[in-house]
Design goal:
Elements lengths: L2 E2 L8 H4 L4 E3 L2 E2 L1 H15 L3 E2 L1 H8 L3 H9 L6 E3 L2 E5 H13 L1
Helix pairs in contact: 3-4
Length: 99
């Protein structure tokens, strides 16, 4: 028997929207495709918050702010927000490797 995902399910965005059917074999193709699209959007982020940059570099948030203040890690301002371009992380790592 195939049934729709219940409204109380919080497994993913597709389940909360009741998209697709869930049977004994798991989520439907539509649900899997939506999850894949959501993951792809997250993977193509061009700007990171300082916290996200810290996670990617495996350092503290404070260290990221210190690196930005010292000019070792490029960042941009969008209004009051500070963001680190993904390419800036790659450049920083390259600079550190060449030292």
């Amino acid at each position: 028997m195939i049934r729709r995902a219940e409204a109380t399910s919080v497994d993913g965005p597709a389940d909360r929207l009741n998209i697709g059917a869930v049977g004994a074999g798991g989520p439907s193709t539509a649900v899997r495709e939506l999850r894949t699209k959501v993951t792809a959007v997250k993977a193509t982020k061009l700007l990171l918050t300082p916290v996200e940059a810290a996670e990617q570099l495996a350092v503290s948030r404070t260290k990221v702010y210190e690196l930005m203040a010292a000019g070792m890690l490029r960042s941009i301002h969008i209004g009051r927000l500070r963001r680190v371009p993904v390419d800036a992380l790659r450049d920083f790592i390259g600079d550190m490797e060449s030292r």
